Every structure is written in structure tokens, then in C-alpha cells.
What we know:
Layout: E1 3-4, E2 10-11, E3 13-15, E4 19-24, E5 27-32, H1 42-60, H2 63-72, H3 78-91, E6 100-106, E7 115-121, E8 124-129, E9 136-140, E10 147-153, E11 156-162, E12 172-177, E13 182-188
Antiparallel strand pairs: 1-2, 3-4, 4-5, 6-9, 6-13, 7-8, 7-10, 10-11, 12-13
Amino acid sequence: xxxxxxxxxxxxxxxxxxxxxxxxxxxxxxxxxxxxxxxxxxxxxxxxxxxxxxxxxxxxxxxxxxxxxxxxxxxxxxxxxxxxxxxxxxxxxxxxxxxxxxxxxxxxxxxxxxxxxxxxxxxxxxxxxxxxxxxxxxxxxxxxxxxxxxxxxxxxxxxxxxxxxxxxxxxxxxxxxxxxxxxxxxxxxxx
Length: 191
């Protein structure tokens, strides 16, 4: 929103220390700046504490965990998605979900040559795995499952589904594609 004065100067936001340019329902106006209040109610302090813990948790996440949220987020950042989910979980008296780190490696390194895999959430590409590298890490959440692993070799492609039930911390699962001729071992690391 921009306010033009009689001299043609455009204003947006704060105008000095005493005024602010704003709009409401498409009507532009200038109003006196009011210093925002800082309520110290018990509810506000509790919310600030939850928010602070959410931010602290975000900063402790590994790169692949943050990358997961950045790729899952729609019309917001991964950071905002994580924070909003964390706060909602605490307010619903649930344990906030932190993405599980999933280590992957081909079942047989010889099978990996010329084979690639991509991890999808619906139609959204989350991760591309270079199976010839022999292994790596991605992050997934149980709440967003199921995921699809698309295995490709030459012109062939096969999709294998990974359900939430398979994402057991401390467990492992092998996804196999007989069509492409590859097995992928996923080890779900405990949080």
C-alpha cells in the first residue's frame, strides 16, 4: 500500500515516529502510531515459551530435516511450517513431531549402477537419491506418509510405497523393485 501526498511522495509503513500508512478493505489511510502492548498474561507467557522451544528445536535439526520441511511447505517457509506444527502439537497436548532421519543404501551395491530413485509426497518431489553413491540420509515424518520411492533404470520406472507403519524408529525396511532390479535398505534412526 502506498499513500501519495500533494507533492507526489509515496509512503508505506512508518512515517517518522508518529504516523503509519496503512489500508483496510482497500481504503488507504494514515493513522497515529500506537506502541504495541506487551501483555504479560500467563497465557501469553506460556505461548512465548512454546514458541521459544519450537525455535530452539528448529535450530537443532539436521540439514536433511530442515530440507524436508522446506520441500513440504506450501506458500510458507519450512521454518514457519515446523513452528506452526510444533505449537499446534503442544497446544493439543501431543508430542511435537521431529522428522525421522532415514539412512539409505542399496541392498546390493552392484544393483545400483545406472539406477536412480526419487522420493515423492503425492506429486511433490522431496529428495533425489543417487544410488551409485552407495548411501545417504533423508528425513521423513510419519504424519505426512505415505511416500513413494520411484526407481528408474534406462526407460523403466517402478514406484514403491512407504507407509507410516514402516517408519518405526530403530527399525529398518527394504523397498524392492523387481521391475527395475533394485532393493533399497532404509534404516530409521531413533530421534
